[in-house]
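Hi,

Apologies if this is the wrong queue. I'm a grad student, and the batch job for Outer membrane protein from Fulvitalea axinellae produced an output file that my downstream script rejects. I'm not sure whether the problem is my script or the file. Here is the sequence I used:
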Amino acid sequence: MLLSAELFAQGSISGSITDKESGEEIIGGTAYISSIQKGAASDIYGKYMIKGVPAGTYSLVVKYIGYREQKVEGVEVKDGQVTELNISLVTDVSELDVVVVQASQINNNQTALLSMQRKALAVQDGISVSEIKKMGVSNAAESMKYVTGAAVEDGKYMVLRGLGDRYSLTQMNGVTMPSTDPYRNSASLDLVPTDMIDNIVTVKTFTADQPGNFTGGKVDITTKSLPEDFYMNFGVSTSFNTNSNLKSDFITDGAEGKLDWLGYDDGTRAKSKYLDFYKSYISNASAVANAYIEAAKEDNGQVRSIMDITARSLDNPYAHRKISSPLNTGVNFSIGNRFDLFGKPLGVNFGFKFDRTYSLVEGGETGIYEGTGKQDNLQSQQELTMTRSSVSSNLGGLLSLAYQIAPNHEISLMNMYSHDGDIVATEESGFWLTSGRDLFGTQSSRMEMRTLNNTQLSGKHYFEVFDGIKFDWVGGYVYSSLEEPDGRYFAYAGTNQAGPNEPKRYTYSMPKSEIGSLPSNFFRDLTDTQMNFKADVTIDFKSDSWFKVSTKFGGAYSKKEREFTENLYSMVEVPPSIGGVANDSYLRFGDVGEDFGRFFSTNNSGLLGVSINGDGESVYLMGNIYSDLSSDQNTYTGEETIVAGYGMGVFEFGPKFKLIGGLRIESTEMGAKSKDTRLEESKIEEVDFLPSLNTIIKLNEKMNLRAAYGRTLARPNMREISPFTMLVGIGKAFEAGNPDLKRTLIDNYDLRYEFYPNPGELLAVSAYYKKFTDPIVRTLLTNTGTTEIKPINVDEATVYGLEAEMRKNFGFITPELEDLVFSTNISFIFSESDMAKEEVEAQENAGFTDVETTRPFQGQSPYIINAALSYNWRRLQWENSFAFNYFGERLAFVTGALTSDVYEQPRPSLNFVSSKGFGDHLKLSVKATNILNMVYSKSYKDHEEKYYSRFERGTTFSLGLSYSL
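Support response: The file is valid. Your script probably expects a header line. Output copied below for reference.
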C-alpha cells in the first residue's frame, strides 16, 4: 500500500451525533467547519467524518432539524491524526440559542460503553477494549471475569449470576455462537482473542428482540469496528511462567507432527482407513482372540496381514518424550482503512494473531473419595500425584468489509477464524484401592483441536418514512469443530519387591482385570454447522407531545446440524505361547521395567516373526494387537431448528417514564439420532410464548430506576438427549444421556438503580429473582447396576442475588488525579435446586440426619468480587493498572447420594499491567499475571483436606512491543 505524504499533512475530525435524551443516533445531522468550508453528514450509525482538515484549531458547528444547534470551540487537529468528538444534541425547538462548549469538555474520560449502558432499554453491563487492555487478559473468557456478576468455569465457559453455561447465551455481532464441546451449551469464549474485540456487553434482562434461551444473561461480543481512517498495528510479545518455561524435563506427547507448532495435526495422529475397513475382524475381544489364533497358522496369510496392518495403524508412541520448553511467544498484526469506491465509502479491517504457550503442573494432587454409608465419612479410593503439561497454539484472523451503497444504507461482510490446538500429556502415580497393588499409575497423551469459523453478511438501512424506519438484517454461517485424534491412555500397577528397610523396587503389570479397556487409543470428532438469519424493523412515531411511541418487530431462523463420532481401540496383550511355540520375540509389560515405551514400540506390535513347532509347522508370532471397542451408541447426528417472531413497543410518557413491552414466540424442533438403529430418535418439539416488560424511570439527568420481568427458556444440548453412555475416567462413573429431558422455563424479575455522577463514572445496585420450572441438573444415580451420571429434570429451582458496581475517578480531590480511576463490582448470589429423589432417599435409607433436599447451581459462587485501579499519566504516555478477582466456594460437580459433592475453593487473583508510549508510534508493555499464585483446589464438601484436585499454575511475566500508525 502506497501512502502519499499528503495523507500525513492533514488530519480528520470524526465522531457520533446522538440524541442526548434517548441516546439514539441521529441520521443526517451535519458537522461543519465554516472557516475552511468543510463538513460531513452523519450516517446510519450516527457517525460523521470530516477529512482533509489542515492542522490547527477550529470551531465546529453541529446541527439537525428540531434540535438546538451546538458549537464546539477549541477543536485541535494534528497532522496525520483523527480528532474524535462525540456530540449529543438537545431536543428543544422553543429555545433557539446556540449551545457553546469547549472541545476539552467533550474529550474527557467518558466511555462510550457506559453511555450505551445508561441509555439501553434492558439492564446491561460490559467491558470495553480499553478496559480489557488494562486487565492484561488475552481472550474473551478472561475478560468476562471482570464483568459484574460474571465468572468463568474451566477457563472457557461463562457463568452469569450464578448460572452455568446452560443458562447463558453467547453471540458475536448479534449472531449466536455454537459450542465446540459436546458436553456444553455455550461457546468457548477462550477462542475469541482480545485483539479482535471492540467491546463485550452482557444483557441481563429479556426483551422480545433477543433470543429466548438466555436466563443468566446474553453476552454479545462486538468485533473491531470499521476504521475511520488508515491505521496499522504490529506487535510481538514473549512471556515466562515460573512453573513452565525454560524447563529441561518438560514432558509432552511422544508423537510429533510437522504442524504441531501451529496447533494442527498433519495426519500423524489421524485414524487409519484400515481400522474401519477391517472392523469386522477386530470388532470385539472374542473376534480378536479367534483372529490371533488363525493368524498364527501358515495358510491364513490374509488374517495375519489384517492383524498386522491394524496393529501398525495405531503406531504412535504411548510413552512421553522430554523437551526443553522455550519462552512463550506471540505476534499480532492489524491494518485498516477507508476508501472511496464508485464515490461511496468502503471500509476494510483485517487482523491476525498467533501465540504459542507452554504450561506445566508438577506435584499436583488428585483424589477420589466415596461415602461409606456413614454420614460425614469418606473413604479414599484413589490418591495420585500428578504432572501435566500443555502446549497450546492459537491462530486467529478477522476480515471485515463495509460498503455504504447510499447515505443511509450500508452492507457489511465479516469473517472471523479461530483455531486452538492443545497437546496435553499427563502422568499420575500413587494409590488406587481397586488395584490392590502397592503402586498405581496412569499416562495419557492427547491432542485437542477446536476450530471456529464465523461468516456474517449484514445490512443496515434507514428510510425517511413516517418519522424514520430502520431495517437491520444479518445472515450468518458458523462452522465449529472439535477433533481429538489418537488420544493414548494406559495404566500400570506396581508391586514392591523390596524389604521393609530397602529402597522400593517395583515389578510392573497392566491392571486389565480392573480397567479392561486400557491401554487404548481414543478418537473423537464433533462438527457443528449453523445457519442464522434475523431481521428487525424499527418504526419511530415521534411527537411534540408528552407521549411518544416506537415499535419494533422481526423474526429469526436458526438451523444447526451436528455430527459426532467416538472410536475406542483397546490393546490386547497376547499370550506367552501359541501352537506349542514360545513367543520369545514378544516383550511383555512386566519385562520392560519403567521403560514403558519399549512395550508399546512398533517393534513389539503386529507380526513379529515365524517359528517352527514340534510338528514341523510354521507358526506366525504376533505382538500387541487391538480390539475395536467402539459403540454405535456413542455416534450420533443431531439437528436443531428454531423459528422465532416477535413484536415490541417502546412507550415514552413524558421525559421521565419509559415502558418497553413485547412478546416473542419461539418454535423449537430438536432431535438426536444414534447410529445404533435399535435406539429411538430423541425429540423435543415445543412452541413457547415469552412475554417481557421493562420500565425505566428517569429520576433526573443522572439517575435511572429500572424494573423488568421476562420469561425465558433453557434447552438441553444434543449430547444430553442422545442415548449415549461413556466411561468418563478411571475409577469414575459412566456419563449417560437422557432422551426424556424437557426444556426449562424461567420467570425472571429484576430491579436496578443507576447513578452516573460524571462522564465515565457509575454507581449501580441491582437485585434479581429467578424461578425455574423443570430445571435440568446433572446427578449421579446408583440404582442402575452401575454408577451413572445423568441429566434429569427436577421440579423447580430458584436463584436470587444482589449486585453493586462502581466506577469513580479521583478528580474530586484534585484535577491532577482525574486519570486515577477505581472500579469495582460485587455480587452476592443465592441458589437452590431440588436434588433428585433417588439421592434424598439413599441418604435417608442410610440413616443420615439433617438430610438436605436442595443444592446450589453448578458453577455458582455465593459471592464474586472484582476491583481495578488504573492511572494514566498522559504527559508521559504511561499507564498502569492492577486488576483483582475473588470468588466464593462453588459447586464443581455432583458426586453421589452418599458422597459429598466436590467444590472449587475460593482463590484470589491479581494482575498488573504497565504500558509506556514512546512518541506517536511505539509502545512497550509489561504484564504480571496470577501474581499471588494461589492454589487451584477442588475438594469434597465439609472435607477440605480431601482433594479432588490441587495444583499451582505459577506466575507469568510478559513483555510486549508494538508499533502503530
